Amino acid sequence: MADNRPSTPPRAGSSTAGTLPRSPLTPEQVRRIEMNRLKAKAIRDQNEARARGATAQPAGARAASSGALAGQKRSHGSMSRSDMPSTVRDGGAGPKLPHQDILPARNFSKYVEYDFSKMTDTKGGFLTAEDDPHNKALHKAAADEKPAHMTLQEWERLQLLRSLRNQKAGPFEPGLSVLKKENKTCKDCGSLEIDWKWEEVFGCRVCNSCKEKLPEKYSLLTKTEAREDYLLTEPELKDPELLPHLERPNPHKSTWNNMMLYLRYQIEEYAFSPKKWGSPEALDAQFAKRESEKKKRKEDKFRTKLQDLKKRTRVEAHRRSRARGAGGGGGEFGDDIGGGGRHQHEWGRSVENPETGIGVKTCIECGMEVEELEF
Questions:
Q1: In Å, how far are 165, 220, 229, 261, 306 from 211, measured between CA atoms?
Q2: Labelling 342: which of 69, 286, 350, 364 has CA 20 to 30 A away?
Q3: Please, which pLDDT band fits residue 112 given cuts at 50, 70 and 90?
Q4: Strand 259-263 to strand 246-248: parallel, antiparallel, or no bridges (unpaired)?
């Protein structure tokens, strides 16, 4: 009876006699075990999803897809993947597993993880081009900078060729035709040496000598001059079909917007046409009208401020007169504090103040001054 009594089993970690204790798992073994567990779980989920899809199909479709009749066992080849060889033991090979289709959140889709232990500390708070391969701005080829494989002479020659190509000058100037009818000539002197850049931008065939001889016709105007002198609007100046313009770098600051230059005779043709003002006299009349309206607005603004200043001055004077009253008491504005009666002002003649140009009247008895405006 004593031999059949149940005994407590030994602990899992304790070693029995004659056997060595089991050594703990290494990190590599733990990692492999976890990877195999995840792969097995993914394969199980994939099989369950395939089984649910097969169950959702009708009986006829399942029989047609499997090639077997109802009640017959399917072969292993029909259930296994035919595109993968049987000797492949890599669970990650082949089609994507369900856990591989997981995408990062939208806010972290452009997140780049850097290994700061392999980076260069520039002491400036920025990353170098070698340490930041994902930055497109650092690796973008700058068009205005000299390439590393070019010498200074080759770079200057390339810049000169680019300038000539933009201006259509030198070797990039259009050639002359044997047929005289096809050649483009200056509309003033008939010269063949026209400015091809102006012909492309403004549609104006003129040579350089005529541009210097006729500045009142072929001089360039800025957008500010065209808007203030000819009273043109911003949409009209931005329309390239209505008023073509030539863009140049801003001379005041290179980071500002490009300067827009217009041809004087094209601006005058549009401003003096019936579409805009009609004639130079109508433009002058409109300019004078706007100047008078501007002057009137300034005068109205000055009068408004002057009236406000007078009101505030009168209120302050009234408060000071009440504070200086007998016994610190009150009193109304204009009362004769000494005599106890009400004072009546007797104004003298209006005298113009030479500094302000406004007439001033003075009370004969108390000496109070009041400005008088004449409309």
A1: 21, 10, 21, 15, 53
A2: 350
A3: low
A4: antiparallel
Q: Which two tokens stand for residue 346?
A: 């007797």
Q: Is the pLDDT of residue 6 over 50?
A: yes
3-state secondary structure the chain: CCCCCCCCCCCCCCCCCCCCCCCCCCHHHHHHHHHHHHHHHHHHHHHHHHHHHHHHCCHHHHHHHHCCCCCCCCCHHHHCCCCCCCCCCCCCCCCCCHHHHCCCCHHHCCCCCCCHHHCCCCCCCCCCCCCCCCCHHHHCCCCCCCCCCCCHHHHHHHHHHHHHHHHCCHHHCCCCCCCHHHCCCCCCCCCCCECHHHHHHCCCCCEHHHHHHCHHHHCEEEHHHHHHHCCCCHHHHHCCCCCCCEEECCCCCCCCCCEEEEEHHHHHHHHCCCCCCCCHHHHHHHHHHHHHHHHHHHHHHHHHHHHHHHHHHHHHHHHHHHHCCHHHCCCCCCECCCCCCECCCCECCCEECCCCCCEEEEECCCCCEEEECCC
Q: How far apart are CA 57 and CA 51, in angstroms?
A: 10
Cα angle value 368/374/375 (rounded, 5°): 150
Top-confidence range, 82-91, 115-124, 287-296, 351-360: 287-296
